[in-house]
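Our collaborator T.R. sent over the components below with a one-line note: 'Predict the complex.' Nothing else. No constraints on interfaces, no templates requested, no preferences about which chain binds where. So this is a plain run: every listed entity goes in together, and whatever single assembly comes back becomes the starting point for the next discussion.
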Amino acid sequence: MLQTKNLKFSYDGKTFLDFPDINCQRGEQWLLLGQSGSGKTTLLHLLGGLRKPKQGEILIDGKNTGQLSSTALDQFRGKNIGIVFQKPYFVRALTVEENLMLAQELAGQDVDRDYIYKLLNQLNVGHKFKSRTDNLSEGEKQRVSIARALVNRPTVILADEPTSALDDKNCHEVIKLLETQSKEANATLLIVTHDGRLKELIKNQIEL
Amino acid sequence: MSNIKLAWKNLTNKPLNMMLSLVLFALGVGMISMIFLIENQVQEKFDKNLAGISLVIGAKGSPLQMILCNMYHVDDPTGNVKIKDVKPFLSGRNPLIDKAIPLSLGDSYKGFRIVGTTQDYPELYDVKPKEGKVWENNFEANIGADVAKIANLKIGDTFYSTHGFLSDGMNGHEHGQFKVVGIFQKSNSVIDQLILTTTQSIWEVHANHDEPETTETTETTETIDTTKEETDNHDGHDHATDDGHDHDHDHDHDHDHDHSAPQKPLIEEVDQEITSILIKFKESSKKSFQALTMLRGINENTEVMAASPAIELNRLYDNMSLGESFLRNLAMIIVLVSGLSIFISLFSSLRDRKYELALMRVMGATPTKLFFLIILEGLLLAVIGYVIGIILSHLGMSVFAGQMEDKYHYSFTATKFLKEEFYLLGGALFIGFVAAVIPAYQAFRTDISQTLTES
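Returned assembly:
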C-alpha cells in the first residue's frame, strides 16, 4: 500500500511543489502522468525515500517514511522499495548475477541465488548472469534492472520513464513484464511517465 | 559480497590506473626497505666483527683503510710494520693490554685472504674448529666455513697461496703450499671468509720469493722433489741472486715446506714485518686514562699508526648516512607521489562511478558503508604496493648479496626481515588511508536524488 497526504516539496524554500494525494492498494498498477518539469521525478524520489518531503506524509505499508532516521530509511528503502530508473545503472565492476546479489546484501537480506536465477530466466536474461553489465544490450540492461528492482520482493515498485528509450514492441514487452512481475510479487507498481503509449495499457492514472 | 571483495573488483576493473599507483608505491617502499636491509646488515657485520678490539696498529696511511683492511678484510693494507717497531705492544708486558694479535696479509687463495696470525685471533671471535684442530705448525691452515664451502676444501687438502687478493691471480703467482688441518664452524663473523695460518708461514713464502738472500729459512726445509711440473710457473721470477743453491732447490721449498713449529718466538724476529696488530684492552683498563690516550700517543710519538675501530666506523657511518639520507628522501618522495597517484586515481574513478555509488545508496547502502568502501580501496592499493615493494627489495637484496659475496666474500642474506619493514607497513597503510580520505568523504556525501537527476 502506497499513500501520500498533503505532500509538498521545495528546492529553494520559496516555491513549493504541491502533489496530489495518492492512494494505491497492494498489488495495483498505477500510472503517474505529467509533462517534463511537472515534478514527476521529484515525486518519485520522494516516494522512493531518496529525498525527504518538506511537508506531508508518505505511508508505505502504513509506515511514515518521512519520519525514519536516515540509516533506517536506507534499510527500509533497500528492503521494501524497488526502483527502475530511466537509465539502467549498475556497479560496472560486477557481473549481472553479482549486481543482484549486491542488491540483496545491501538491503540486509540473505543471498538467494535460486530466486535470482528464477527472476533472470523469467525476464529472458538468464543466460547473461555471468556477463559484465557493459556487455548487455539496452533492452537486456532494462530487464536486468527490473530484476534488480524485484530481487528483494519489495512492497512497492517505482519505475521512472522505463519505456522512453524503447520502441513500441519493446515498450509493450517491458510494461507487460513489470505488470506480471509486480502482480506475482503482490507489489504496488507505480510508473512515472510522459509516454502516451502507456495510457492505453494501465487504467489507474494520476495526472500532475 | 564483502567490502574487500567489492573494493578489489572495483580496483581490478581499471587495471591500468591501478598499475600506475602500484608501480610507484612498490618502487618507493622497495627502495626504503632495501636501504633498511643494507644498512642493517652492513652495521651488523661491522659491529659483530668489532669483537672487543679497541685499537688497530699498523703502517701509517688512512686509518679507515687500515680498519677496513685488518678488521673487515675489504680494503688493501696500508703497508707493513717491522716487528721491532711494535715490539712493546706484542711483548705482553703492557699492563693495559689483554691481547695483542699480529696479522700478516698479502696472500690469498681463490680470493679468500690468507692471514698469518696467532691462535688468539679466532678466539677473539669465539670461533672453534668444527672439524680438525687449530693450526700449530707452519703451513698448516685453518679455513673458515665459507671458504670450505666455496673453495671446496676438506681436511688434509693442500692448496697454493697466490700473491695479492684477486681471485683470478692476475697479479699473483702461486707459491707456498698449505695444508688444511681445521675447518671453523660457521660464525657469521669475518673468520668465515678467511684462511688462518702462522705468521711465520707468510714470512717464509715471501722470503723465498721476495728476498732470496734470506736463505737460512730455506735451509731448514726438505728437498723432496714432488712437483716438477710446477717449475715453469716460476721461471719468470727473479731468483737471480741465487747464492749457491740450485734453482730447483728453491722451488722444492715452495711446494713442500716443512710443517714444523715456528723456530723462534715471533717477537724476536725483529726485522720481519707484519701488517698490523689488533689490540684488546683489559676489561679493567678499557676506560683508563692511559688506554684512552694510547691512540694519540702512538700516532704522535712513533713511526706506526693506531686507529680506533669505533671512531673510524662512526666516521664511515656518517659518510654513508649522507648518501643514505638522500636515497631515503628520494624514496619518500616517490612514496608521496604514489600516494598522490592513488588519490588522483580514486578521485577520477569516483567521477565515473558516482551513479554507481548513488545506486548503492538506493539499494540500501549507508553513507558510512560507501566511505569505508573507498578507504578500503586506498588501503588495498597500499598493501599490495607494499607487498610488491618488499618482494622487490628482497629480490634486490639477493642480487646485492651475490655481488658482495663475489667481490668481498662477505655474505649478506635476502631472507632476513626487519621490524622496520613492519613499521613500513604502518606507513604504507597511513598513506593509503590519507590518499583515500577525500574521495571517501565525497562518496560519503553522495546526494542520491541529485546525482540521479543529473543524468
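Summary for T.R.: Residues 309-362 of chain B form the longest helix (54 residues).
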